[in-house]
Amino acid sequence: MAALGQNLAVVVHRAGDLRLENRPIPEPGPNEVLLRMHSVGICGSDVHYWQHGRIGDFVVKDPMVLGHEASGTIVKAGSGVTHLKPGDRVAIEPGVPREMDEFCKSGRYNLSPTIFFCATPPDDGNLCRYYKHSASYCYKLPDNVTFEEGALIEPLSVGIHACKRAGVTLGSKVFVSGSGPIGLVNVLVAKMMGAAAVVITDFTIQVKNETPQEVASKVESLLGCMPDITVECTGVQACIQAGIYATRSGGTLVLVGLGPEMVTVPIVNAAVREVDIRGIFRYCNTWPVAIALLASKRINVKPLVTHRFPLEKALEAFETTKRGEGVKVMLKCDPTDHNP
Question: Could you tell me which of 244, 289, 321, 243 has the C-alpha nearest to residue 47?
């Protein structure tokens, strides 16, 4: 393994303490692969762990490698791995079930309480030079799909899962609340799934000091009707309220953004109008779908990447993300290849 060089990693130690440090290069088990990481996106959750040292009940107690939006090249495959070989370019699904429980049996493995998930305490992420991962959750990238597109499958998957849970279909009218990377991928996926019209806050609707009811009426006047589906990507209380008021009776509100545990919402308004409120937790069974969409050029995520930094400048990249500059900041982990 010494021939591979150093394994530089971005590690959060506690709130406010982010470091670049060398870690040992891991040895893959029989059903694992060792990857030379190429492109890793910075997510809002990475910044949150750095700034606050926790997200809800997930608390950073020991140093943890960040990063979960990732792609790389296989350098070594375990003895039991048959579908991948060294040299294969892959996208990494960061959530790997640890046991075959009832959620896995029913195909909803994202809900398994013991799931491994990159960069969710205590599990290390993949913002490093070398990383090992379950081979079953590494997906081969076609030649016409770039490493950066491979890394963007993770946020894209949130959009695919949310729009599926929302029931977006031919002719849907959709309201997307929040225009960060997750809001934007929901716009892309909703349009691709057949939505006839999509409005999104901060683009088609500027929200300043309006009440949630005023935001809802703005949405209605822009669409010409109330949306069948609202996808809420901020987690902000006022935005969830606006989402309920905006959604047409009999429609669906999907909560994607996560804020405080307790929020005050007009639940009776939703109840008497039969507005279905659905949650989502990450995603499941989305990587093959996303790869097919990217390979067929049905969806274009490339413009989401606005900043690129080499891994050595990770701290600068995190500061850029924290300031809210651009859309998606991508770290380039392979010193010999900084191409997309």
Answer: 321
CB 67 within 8 A of CB 118: yes
Burial class (CB in 10 A: 0-12, 13-18, 19+), 99: exposed
Is pLDDT at 3 greater than 80 in this prediction? Answer: no
Q: Which two tokens stand for residue 58?
A: 């997930």
Q: Which of 192, 193, 163 is nearest to 176 (CA)?
A: 163
The predicted-structure confidence for 22-42, as pLDDT tens digits, reads as follows: 999 999 999 999 999 999 999
Q: What is the helix (H) or strand (E) element at residue 319, kind and residue range?
A: helix 314-322
- The H or E element that residue 242 is part of is helix 237-246
How far is residue 200's CA from residue 178's CA, in Å, rounded to a whole number? Answer: 7
The length of the chain is: 340
| Region of 185 on the Ramachandran plot (φ > 0 left; ψ -120 to 50 alpha; else beta) | alpha
Q: Give 1's pLDDT tier (boundaries 50, 70, 90).
A: low
Cα gap 16→48, rounded to integer Å: 10
Distance CA 141, CA 274 (A): 42
